[in-house]
């Protein structure tokens, strides 16, 4: 085997690739500072004096507990209806970026939430992407639909609709009133891992010749609310019902009912959560900070953060978390570990 140093250019600069540079004379380093400076020439970092620890005893959290108010988002989206057209905007939505420095997208580590509005008579064109998505409907009249894989799926208050990885989806508001909902996507996870693909439907809006109220992509509020109320309480005034099984592996949906006056002491977990208030009002404490909430509001509960919730009025909250993925990877610890 040829020694690769025999044919290197000895005049190469320190920024050249290691394959074409001479090995620095490390033995000439008189102290650690000099040795560290020489490591740059071979594109490595010392592992004995890292500026930022790579391993630590417990999860460190970049994101904060946060709350977004539907009343604010609704007013902003209504105004955007005058100024932002779906003919040039892929979606008329508001991204709930966790309010920490340097973040302009993720709501929690793996998930993003957004409020979206489609005007009466308007269509949001069809597309597909590798991030999994779901909607929770806040306000919509009859004849508001998400078109998924060639079927029109009705959107009514409290409904949860799934558009899994690579399913075409568009939105069609054939009613006389603006429709509002919350989108959740695992796009931050896909961005981190790399397998992002996106494309428009070749026909702009996918043709749909049938309405499917019982679509497997839809959890209708009229169906799951009675089932939720029929479950045995886990604690006084607290009931939970998982909306599954389905084709999304990265996040789950736990419908949670809190009777007026009831408390939900959510223990900390390695799962990241987004809570969507469908009905009712109350308050939560997340990481020691109090947030009041009412119907349509959204709460971010970052992983490994204490959180507790209290309803002043009968409330339904949809809790979305990445627990299934953490469980599959054996990284789920805490309250959701089961
Ligand atoms: Fe989409």
Briefly summarize what is shown.
This protein is of the alpha+beta class. The protein has helices at 32-39, 70-83, 187-193, 221-229, 323-328; strands at residues 66-68, 93-95, 112-118, 123-129, 133-139, 144-148, 151-154, 160-163, 169-173, 179-185, 198-200, 218-219, 238-242, 252-258, 263-266, 273-279, 281-286, 289-294, 298-301, 307-311, 315-321.
How many helices in DSSP terms?
5
> Regarding CATH, which class of the largest domain?
Mainly Beta
Number of domains: 3
Taking the alpha carbons of the first and last residues, their distance comes to 56 Å
Write the layout of secondary structure elements.
Layout: H1 32-39, E1 66-68, H2 70-83, E2 93-95, E3 112-118, E4 123-129, E5 133-139, E6 144-148, E7 151-154, E8 160-163, E9 169-173, E10 179-185, H3 187-193, E11 198-200, E12 218-219, H4 221-229, E13 238-242, E14 252-258, E15 263-266, E16 273-279, E17 281-286, E18 289-294, E19 298-301, E20 307-311, E21 315-321, H5 323-328
Antiparallel strand pairs: 1-19, 2-3, 3-10, 4-9, 4-11, 5-8, 5-10, 6-7, 6-9, 8-12, 13-14, 14-21, 15-20, 16-19, 16-21, 17-18, 17-20
Structure description:
By secondary structure, the chain is of the alpha+beta class. The chain folds into 3 domains: 25-55, no CATH class; 66-217, Jelly Rolls; 223-328, Jelly Rolls (Sandwich). Helices cover 13% and strands 32% of the residues. It has 5 helices and 21 strands. Residues 127, 129, 133, 169 line the site of fe (ii) ion (FE2). Fe (ii) ion (FE2) binds at residues 127, 129, 133, 169.
């Amino acid at each position: 085997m040829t020694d690769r140093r025999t044919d290197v250019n000895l005049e190469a600069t320190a920024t050249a690739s290691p394959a074409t540079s001479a090995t620095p004379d490390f033995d000439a380093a008189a102290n650690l500072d000099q040795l560290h400076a020489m490591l740059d020439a071979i594109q490595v970092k010392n592992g004995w004096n890292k500026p930022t620890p790579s391993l630590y005893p417990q999860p460190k959290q970049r994101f904060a507990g946060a709350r977004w108010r539907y009343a604010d988002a609704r007013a902003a989206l209504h105004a955007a209806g005058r100024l932002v057209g779906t003919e040039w905007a892929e979606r008329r939505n508001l991204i709930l970026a966790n309010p920490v420095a340097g973040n302009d997208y993720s709501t929690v580590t793996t998930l993003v939430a957004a409020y979206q509005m489609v005007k009466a008579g308007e269509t949001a064109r069809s597309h597909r992407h590798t991030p999994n998505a779901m909607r929770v409907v806040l306000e919509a009249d009859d004849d508001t639909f998400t078109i998924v894989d060639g079927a029109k799926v009705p959107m009514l208050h409290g409904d949860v609709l799934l558009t899994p990885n690579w399913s075409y989806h568009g939105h069609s508001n054939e009613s006389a009133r603006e429709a509002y909902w919350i989108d959740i996507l695992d796009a931050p996870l896909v961005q981190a891992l790399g397998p992002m693909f996106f494309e428009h439907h070749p026909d702009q809006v996918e043709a749909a010749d049938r309405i499917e109220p019982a679509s497997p992509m839809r959890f209708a509020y009229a169906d799951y609310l009675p089932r939720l109320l029929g479950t045995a309480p886990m604690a006084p005034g607290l009931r939970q019902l998982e909306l599954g099984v389905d084709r999304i592996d990265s996040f789950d949906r736990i419908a949670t009912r809190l009777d007026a006056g009831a408390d939900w002491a959510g223990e900390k977990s390695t799962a990241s959560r987004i809570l969507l208030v469908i009905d009712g009002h109350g308050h939560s404490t997340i990481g020691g900070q109090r947030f009041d909430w009412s119907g349509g509001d959204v709460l971010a509960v970052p992983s490994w953060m204490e959180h507790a919730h209290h309803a002043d009025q009968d409330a339904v909250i949809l809790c979305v978390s990445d627990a299934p993925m953490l469980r599959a990877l054996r990284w789920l610890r805490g309250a959701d570990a089961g």
